[in-house]
Amino acid sequence: MRLILIGIMMLLLSGCSEKDMRQTYDLINASVAEVPLTRQEIVAALKESLSKGITRGAALASRKDGYFGNPQLKIEFPRDVIEVEKTLRRIGFGGEIDRFVKQLNRSAEKAAARARPIFVRAITALTINDALEILNGAPDAATRYLMRTTGSELRKQFLPIVRETLNETSATRYYGDIVKQYNALPLVADVNPDLDQYATDKAIDGLFVLIAEEEANIRANPVARTTALLRRVFGSLD
Question: Using an 8 Å Cβ cutoff, are 34 and 199 in contact?
Fold first, then answer.
């Protein structure tokens, strides 16, 4: 189709004025735009969009302060043992708490750098029906699809990575010291929550926040559609 249009264009433009050439060019562009989207194009565009969001999200999250310096992503002291934080800060251990929180976020940043291949493998499962629903769905429909279809398996694969980075940044040791100090206090119930699982969930949640932002940007902002395929498919929604 495109080759035919180019041939017609060359014939029509021979000896034409600049005004005629512009009108002909606009006509051909309109004709190309009217060619219906194929299902294969929609699937490819959604996969490209998700891959782009994951690549950008992982890059932003994995840089220094990607989590720690971003209020949307920053991982705080575990909320289910908030009394531990309150009690230790009250008796002068705030510095230890702050040091742990910083290293906890450093762990997430290191883990995020290794997240992209895990997400990319999950994208290959996208079907034609999924793609059609996502294309016409909410601004974060693709991200929600990814969360829904890969959540448990993603956390299972990501857990060893986070556990490793927690050890590399000494966050595990700092947390152990904090819990030990708290459990040594009189009249408190011992606590020992699962730091690995908590950090894994929060690290993945942060990545999804960034992926959703990138997806919304591609849907709403033509400038963010950096390839012809993205422009054609998402432009159909404008």
Answer: no
Distance CA 13, CA 186 (A): 90
Digit-coded pLDDT (tens) for 210-234: 989 988 888 888 888 888 888 888 8
What's the CA gap between 157 and 203, in Å, rounded? 13
Could you tell me the residue ranges of all domains in the chain?
Answer: 1-35, 38-235
CA angle 174, 177, 181 (to 5 degrees): 145
Extract the tokens encoding 137: 């769905």
> Which residues, at least 6 apart from 227, have a Cβ–Cβ distance to it below 8 Å?
48
* 3-state SS string for the chain: CHHHHHHHHHHHHCCCCHHHHHHHHHHHHHHHHCCCCCHHHHHHHHHHHHHHHHHHHHHHHHCCCCCCCCCCCCCCCCHHHHHHHHHHHHCCCHHHHHHHHHHHHHHHHHHHCCCHHHHHHHHCCCCHHHHHHHHCCCCCHHHHHHHHHHHHHHHHHHHHHHHHHHHHCCHHHHHHHHHHHHHCCCCCCCCCCCHHHHHHHHHHHHHHHHHHHHHHHHHHCHHHCCCHHHHHHHHCCC
Place of tokens 């100090």: 181
| Token pair for 41 | 């194009």
Question: Which tens digits make up the pLDDT trace of 43-100?
Answer: 888 888 888 888 888 899 999 999 999 999 999 988 777 888 888 888 888 888 899 8
